[in-house]
């Protein structure tokens, strides 16, 4: 019992000393943040877009019957496979990329695509 009577005043004095020396921490200063520049986003190319692009770029080609466009993650270009006229098979290829303004898709090699 004697040990517990001695520890009580020591514990109380240590608690008081630690409580008296504490001050509230200063509020953190807000750091200025730079707003990210918005990047234009283009719609995902589909059969309708490819049909329109081919009709504008290559008016002598038969109309697109079927098409599949794929864009790999992080790529700047889109690979499209398509069939023309009555052809249901994806026999032809075209690569699409954003135009200089970055607001529309365009065919990257129209001479090769139009030569089909």
TrEMBL record:
PROSITE patterns: PROKAR_LIPOPROTEIN
Superkingdom in the source lineage: Bacteria
Name this protein carries in UniProt: Lipoprotein
Species name: Aurantiacibacter atlanticus
Lineage per the UniProt record: Bacteria, Pseudomonadati, Pseudomonadota, Alphaproteobacteria, Sphingomonadales
């Amino acid at each position: 019992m004697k040990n517990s009577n001695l520890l009580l005043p020591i514990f109380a004095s240590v608690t008081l000393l630690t409580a008296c020396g504490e001050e509230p921490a200063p509020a953190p200063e807000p750091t200025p943040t730079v707003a990210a520049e918005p990047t234009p986003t283009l719609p995902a190319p589909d059969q309708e877009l490819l049909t329109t692009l081919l009709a504008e770029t290559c008016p002598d080609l038969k109309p697109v019957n079927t098409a599949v466009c794929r864009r790999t993650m992080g790529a700047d270009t889109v690979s499209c496979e398509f069939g023309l006229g009555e052809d249901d098979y994806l026999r032809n290829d075209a690569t699409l990329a954003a135009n200089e303004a970055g607001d529309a898709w365009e065919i990257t090699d129209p001479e090769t695509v139009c030569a089909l």
